[in-house]
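User:
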Amino acid sequence: MEQEQKQTQSLQMPTTYDPKAAEQKWYPYWKEGGFFEAGKRPDAEPYTIVIPPPNVTGMLHIGHALDFTLQDILIRVKRMQGYDALWLPGSDHAGIATQTKVEQKLREEGVTRYDLGREKFLEKVWEWKDLYAGTIRDQWSKIGLSLDYSKERFTLDEGLSEAVREVFVKLYDKGLIYRGKRIINWDPAARTALSDIEVEYKEVNGHLYHLQYPLKDGSGFITVATTRPETMLGDTAVAVHPEDERYKDMIGKTLVLPIVGREIPVIADEYVEKEFGSGAVKITPAHDPNDFEMGQRHQLPQIIVMDESGTMNGFAGKYEGMDRSECRKQIVLDMKESGVLLRIEDHVHQVGHSERSGAVVEPYLSTQWFVKMQPLADAAVDAQKSGKGVHFVPDRFERSYLQWMENVRDWCISRQLWWGHRIPAWYSESTGEVVVAMSEEEARAKLGKDDLRQDEDVLDTWFSSALWPFSTMGWPNEESADFKRYYPTSVLVTGYDIIPFWVSRMIFQGLEFTGQMPFKDTLIHGLVRDSEGRKMSKSLGNGIDPLEVIEQYGADAMRYMISTGSTPGQDLRFRWERVEQARNFANKIWNASRFALMNLEGFSAADIDISGELGTADRWILHRLNETSRDITRLIDAYEFGETGRLLYNFIWDDLCDWYIEFAKLSLYGEDQVSKRKTQSVLAYVLDRTMRLIHPFMPFISEEIWQHLPHEEGETVMLASWPVYDSAFENPEAVAEMNSLMDIIRAVRNIRAEVNVPMSKKVELQLKPVNAQMASIIDRNADYIRRFCNTSEYVASLELVAPDKAMTAVVTGVELYLPLAGLIDIAQEITRLEKEIQHLNSEVERVEKKLNNPGFVAKAPEKVIEEERAKMADYSDKRSIVITRLEELRG
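Assistant: Predicted structure:
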């Protein structure tokens, strides 16, 4: 009954594929059927991916679509291969990114977070989170992602929050978290510390100011250069290289800081580059990270000259109250007037801007919480170098990872925000003592005091997302069923831009707290750029909305284009014409399948029989399917999606559609019922397996077609078994035979094109095989040759005598002749070629005159002259070919 229903459905397949209808039908079917859910194969080997959690700040972009599609391909393949495949979804609270969005919305309503207070403000952010988490789920469904929604996580879920507190407390107890003063990235608009990834460096046309700092003893001065003259107010030294002969006598002397009048020392430090500039640098420990390190080495004072809003403070003297940019202008004027300013040069340099507020980031000395990175990084580096680390794909990114880990600085983890994981530290109001604990109750017990105030700051988003692979699995409960079964994960798929910020941190946290690498492989992909190779950005207006692509071309076309257009580690250029090509590919699959189904009426899965004697084309397509299945599996395991896409395309478009289905028509439309039944079997079998191979890339169209095909396995193609290589299908003889047939057919078609004879016109074909084996192949397949060469007369013989006037071609093992009398009207063709020679003669003469004209050659650009020479060569070559052809016809 079920099979009868399928046959009825096949008759109802629309003439064209409707992506929207398929997407709206199959995604709810998959989701509601529980087909995405892990845990249903308790005896199977687990395969796990945790999704890189998108921020709950708005819409997914095309980069997300690439990242998620690659993961979906892997998880669908592994599910079909019989693994217990878990793809765990979730989203990230995103700290400053989300808070900025909500504050912006509130400002439009005339309200600030301070008007609401912390508790009410956080209620507003949770409302935002619920709205956009739903939006993200909707986008996931439109892309067709097979996520296990039953295990969805959010970085502020209680379980994940417990993991964050556990990690913080343990690192603190080990002395690896501390509170101290260091230089951090400061956003003076949002008034918070920033992570490195939240700083965007933009090229700015600025100036380099050369200043003269006089020696106190009046014996001279030292010249320094700066792009930020306002920070000189916080200078506490000038440094030179200890081996710089120019300054050896000045080391240890005292300078007088211009404008301020404060005395500062000349110090020696090997960090200074002798060859750069004057070889002397001003040291501002409170406003530059390198100066801070040098200041630590030389015990220099740290003078902060501006407040958290970027306004000059009391240490700035007469500039107090000025904005930092306003102060810069005024101090330059004052230095000019006092003769301190030697010169100003135009200077293009990279300036950090806050990704969220757009403000220029200030390197700022601030009291924050830090992770002491060296011990954690050393353990991760040792594991990587000993062969127990993560396998990077491509492997060159291992160098990026190691370079960052080996040069890592202490990590500033505190943020002056309200949205996020609040730091689990409490202070006694009476004594100022600090205690770190899992809860306030535990803090009271530890400190023995009740007058506790929790730290106002929250943790850097990356602190919680660094725990994502194991916190989502139930850790710190190491007896959690998910943690025991699905951790460590199998592969992480992410972009190269966040190797330092996320990948590295997951590795050292995973190693520290679980004793294992959090994933076996790390697949690094590139960025999606526009068609000109530019990074997509709001300012350029060149961003691509994946939902817009899906709306226009369907999810399958978008998925196929972005996944198969990528090579591991390389950027991908988004081109609309490539999406259109992918849509055309989907239509080709649909049309071929529809034709096949029209010829499989009354044919059931039980009727499929591909044993026994099969025709050349049948044996060839089974060989090619087998070979393609093997190669695609190997390439997917190597994460070579681009090459996988090429193989799929060639097999489906060329082998299956353009050749096999055309060959199959002879049997399907013929009178031989045995041959027809065999071809139907092969066609049904090959289409079924082809839908399985294409399914991870194009899930909707493959499901729609597969449901109409006669098959025995299950309710959905996503649970059908993945095609595996079977040596029984190896058939090199059929391949050689089919290649010979295709070569003959192509050669005839090429000759037809050369002499402008359409395929609809019958032609005489004479074949001379080189040996008896080839003669046998031609004899067995004569019907195919006649049909696809469209012959009026057909001769194949080892004894063939070549005709006098004929178009010829030689392919492996066969000489082909198409007598001209049957192809063309020779007299008419001679007349046409004579006219063509006249035209080419005039073109050659015209270009010759131009190139022999001294005035043209003297005045025209070299590029134009080269173009004319190329035309001359082209016209001459064409004329030679036409002359040869004319001589042949005249005999």
